[in-house]
Amino acid sequence: xxxxxxxxxxxxxxxxxxxxxxxxxxxxxxxxxxxxxxxxxxxxxxxxxxxxxxxxxxxxxxxxxxxxxxxxxxxxxxxxxxxxxxxxxxxxxxxxxxxxxxxxxxxxxxxxxxxxxxxxxxxxxxxxxxxxxxxxxxxxxxxxxxxxxxxxxxxxxxxxxxxxxxxxxxxxxxxxxxxxxxxxxxxxxxxxxxxxxxxxxxxxxxxxxxxxxxxxxxxxxxxxxxxxxxxxxxxxxxxxxxxxxxxxxxxxxxxxxxxxxxxxxxxxxxxxxxxxxxxxxxxxxxxxxxxxxxxxxxxxxxxxxxxxxxxxxxxxxxxxxxxxxxxxxxxxxxxxxxxxxxxxxxxxxxxxxxxxxxxxxxxxxxxxxxxxxxxxxxxxxxxxxxxx
Length: 388
What we know:
The protein has 17 helices and 13 strands. The chain folds into 2 domains: 18-144, P-loop containing nucleotide triphosphate hydrolases (Rossmann fold, 3-Layer(aba) Sandwich); 151-386, no CATH class. The protein has helices at 19-26, 43-53, 67-73, 78-85, 102-112, 125-133, 150-153, 157-170, 174-178, 182-204, 210-221, 230-237, 241-253, 282-288, 301-319, 363-368, 382-386, and strands at 4-8, 11-15, 32-36, 59-63, 90-94, 117-122, 140-144, 257-262, 276-279, 325-330, 336-343, 346-352, 373-377. By secondary structure, it is α/β, with parallel strands linked by helices.
């Protein structure tokens, strides 16, 4: 078992990353395994830990952002690639999205050196997946790493209760969890926002307007749980809806935001046109709006709770390979449900309440989907909802 040791809530905890064993099991000769996710989520740490687990094997570890490495790996000459991995059992490439033509050249490498096993990481999902997936169809496996999930952090019920106030405010980036005080946590989140996430956003499509990105993120941060109008955002930002959509797509590619679309199947009055956006990490959401007040002083605690529960549920289901699809549900007469989870045709509906109040299933939903499960997720039962 591969374990990270961190100090959290003045206790030493052992945190096992759910994906580690799956990554090790996916490694095969002549194939490429790719791990992608936002920067600072622990990809490099997992890479190094897997290397430790493979003791006795010869591993070539390269950094894709190194210019010499990028030049070698972007070569389309068979002899250069062959000489690069000669004598090695494994090739590990960190931040592989920085290497030009990485997909084509990894294909050439495993085609001509079928004994090599390749593991790469990247911080831009769409970019890396397209570069590697298309040339290596059938010979590549992809995994997404997020900040720590609740299932990775909580070892028992009481601990889970104690963790929630911190997780709702500061999120679950590994460095932030390691921080010993609130001032350090805030500083680290600010550094992650400006030094890493913005870097990926701007580099991905050669963008320069970081102020526009932050203004867009702030507007989205205040609309958690509500449909987003591209036209309204464009009007507030003084730009076009096309530009807003483009930037939102980039924010999804770089693992800052994700979207839920409206669910529609049986009713004409179901809303599907405008999506809802959520942050993958509550800490990033709060640093964007510069608000780290404790939960008892928040007027947006409902948003924080919904954002956390939705993002954590999706993490859980993706790590478990349930192949679920996720939506929100709402009608034009204001009946709504926060999250719908569709797995093998079965619908599960969830409402999120910070207090202990139980939500009532909307009448229209009950009539349209009588076989669907409905549940209120609050502080009493959320652990069953989020634990693996």
